[in-house]
C-alpha cells in the first residue's frame, strides 16, 4: 500500500511542477486556450456539414453525434493531461537517459507514462463536459447517475486499454532505434474516436471494439449517457482493460531484460 | 549578379540540396513509411464517415465512387504537395545559418526548394506499395478519368499545388524575421489548412453560401483543386478560372515572399552583427 501512496505523492509533485510552468508562460497559455476553442468550434461546424443532407447517419442524430464529440474531448483531454511523458521515451532511449529512469526506486512504467502532467489540457476536458451537457440537452437526455457512472467506467476502460496499446508501441523503441515516436501510428485512432463505430462497416467495427478499443473510449460511454448501451459491455471492458494493462507491463519487463544500457 | 547568370547556379545548388535531402531521408525510411501510412489511414477515416453520410443522404453533390476516388487520391496527392519549412526557415533565421547561405551568389529559395523536392523522392518510392494496395482494395469503386487531357491537367494542377503550398508555407515561416516564436502562427495556419484544403471535408460539400469563399481561398489550390479535376466534380467551365486562381496565387505569394525577405533581411542583419 505504501508504494501506492509513494506513487500518488510523486504524481502530485508532477502536477505542481506543471502548474508552475503554466504560470510562468502565460502568453503560451492564453494562445493555447484560444487555439483549442477554435479547434473545437471548427470541428462542431464540420459536424454540422455532415448533416446538411440528412437527419440521421447510421442511426445517430446531430445532437447525439455532438454528445459523442463531447465525450471524445473529455477522453482526449484526459489522455493529454496524463500521458505527455510518453512522447519523451524514444529520446530517453536514444540519449541514454533510460538508464537513469530504470535506476529510480519507482515503477519505470509509471514514471515514463505519468511524469508530465499537462494542466492546460484540463480545459479540453472542461469543454468536453460543456459540450456533453449542451448536446445532451438537445438530444433530450434524462441524466441518471447510473448512466453517468457506467459511462465513466466504460470510458476509463477504453482509456486504459488504448494507453496499454500505446505503451506497447512505445516500448518497441528499444528495438526500433531509428524511429522517433513510433506511437505516431496511433494518430488515426484519435481521428476515428470522434465518430461512432457504427459509421464503419464490416471488420472495422470489431477491430475498433476489441483490438484498438476506440469504441470503449467514446462510442459506448456516449451510448451509456443516451441510455442505449448494452450492460454486458461493462464487465467486458473491465476484463479488456486489465488484460491490456497486464500485457503492456509484461512486455515492458521483457524489453528491459533485453536492454543493454549505454555503458554496456 | 544579373538574373541570367544567377539562375543556372541556383538550379545547381537546388539539385545539390535535393541530393543532400534525399540521402538524409534514406535513413528515415521507416519514419516516412509510418507518416504516409498514418496519412492514408486518416484519409480512409474521412472516407468512411462520408460514405456513412452518403448511405442516408439525399442529394449529396458527390456520389460514392467520387468519394472513394477523392479520398484515396487525397493521400497520394498530399505526398506531392507537403511542405515542412517550419522546421527549416525559423531555425535558419534565428540561429544565423542564413548568413552563410546569403553570402553565396544563389537565391536562398534554391536551398529550400531543393530540400523540399529531395525529401519527397523517398516518399514517392514508398508511395508505390501504398498506391497498389489502395487500387487492389478499392479497384472496383474507383472512377478515374479516361481521357489523357484530364490526366495532363491533373498533373499540371498537382505541380502548381505543390508550388502554392510551398510558397504559402514560406510566407508564414518567413514571419520569423519579426517573431521570435512562429509556432503559434504555424499552428493557426495548419488548423485553417485542415478545414479548408478539402482533406477532411471535400469543398464541394460545403454549404452553398460558403462555396464562393471556398472556391477562392488559397488552401483549395494546395490540395482540393487537383482532386476536383481527377474526380470530375469540377465542371469544364471551372477549369480556366481555377487555373487562373492557382497561377495567381503562385505569382502573388512569390511577390509577398520577395517583399518579406527584402525587409526581413534588413532586420536580420541588424541583429546578427
Descriptive overview:
The complex is a heterodimer of chains A (264) and B (273). Helices cover 70% and strands 2% of the residues of chain A. Chain A contains twelve helices and two strands; from the N terminus they run ααββαααααααααα. Chain A has helices at 2-24, 26-50, 62-82, 89-94, 98-103, 108-114, 122-139, 145-171, 187-192, 204-211, 214-226, 233-257, and strands at residues 56-57, 60-61. In chain A, α8 runs antiparallel to α11 and α8 runs parallel beside α12 (233-257). The radius of gyration of chain A is 20 Å and the shape is globular. The mean pLDDT of chain A is 90. Helices cover 75% and strands 0% of the residues of chain B. Chain B has helices spanning 3-26, 29-56, 64-81, 89-94, 97-103, 108-138, 148-173, 183-196, 208-216, 224-231, 239-272. Chain B is globular, with a radius of gyration of 20 Å. The mean pLDDT of chain B is 89.
Q: What is the number of strand segments of chain A?
A: 2
Low-confidence stretches of chain B: none
- CA-atom Rg of chain B in angstroms: 20 Å
- What percent of the residues of chain B sit in helical stretches (DSSP H or I)? over 70%
Shape field of chain A? globular
| Major β-sheet profile of chain A | 2 strands, antiparallel
Strand and helix order of chain A: HHEEHHHHHHHHHH
Number of strands of chain B: 0
